[in-house]
Amino acid sequence: MRPRPSMLMPAEAYALWASSYPARAHNPVMRAEERAMLALMPDTLHGAAVLDVGCGSGRYMLHALRRGAARVIGVDLSAPMLARADAELAALQAAADVDLIQGSLAALPVPDARANLTLCGLVVGHIDDLQRALAELCRVTRPGGTLLCSDVHPIGHALGWLRDFKSDGRHYAVQHTQHLYSHWHAACAALGLRIEQVLEPMLDPADIPADARFDRAALEVPVALVFRLRRPV
Description:
Elements: E1 6-8, H1 10-17, H2 28-40, E2 49-53, H3 59-66, E3 71-76, H4 79-89, E4 97-102, E5 115-121, H5 130-139, E6 141-152, H6 154-158, E7 163-167, E8 170-174, H7 181-191, E9 194-199, E10 224-230
Parallel strand pairs: 1-8, 2-3, 2-5, 3-4, 5-6
Antiparallel strand pairs: 6-10, 7-8, 9-10
């Protein structure tokens, strides 16, 4: 049996992970989650202001820019991750207004009603209080605007899956809180957010390397919860 990885809080974990964290979906779970998120994202974002909360190395900012967003703002807790995002976005920044801001989902350093579209991919599990996180995402979204949010599926938590990585030969995992669908439903109802669509993507076997060591149960269950939410007008 392999030893359990050292568990880290998000700020410490992503500071270590940033140097090897690409601006793309780089494992089968992320690819499944990303396919669902992009399916719910408008095909064209021309003229739109897009906010990516927990932007990491900038993968969803890149997608928003490629779909024509006029302004893209990325917020992340980790300064090293924002440095990676800045490098990844450099080639596209001349074509649009791009801002990168260090801050927490629990208290976003962004004015009210800033974005037509707010993205938050695989981040809310790093916050214990789901309703507080969704309240912040709602606040920074314009009335009538869209929120796209995803998280690791709670089934994965029940099966013992971890958000893990290696740095300098050591094995680590990021602290993560399980949020059930019922928690999302209750939080959205309390905030007046309308749940428009929910996707539960499955792994694509084609994404899994032939020599991968993984829980075979992952092929039988959804690996992410993905929501399209609407802020009331």
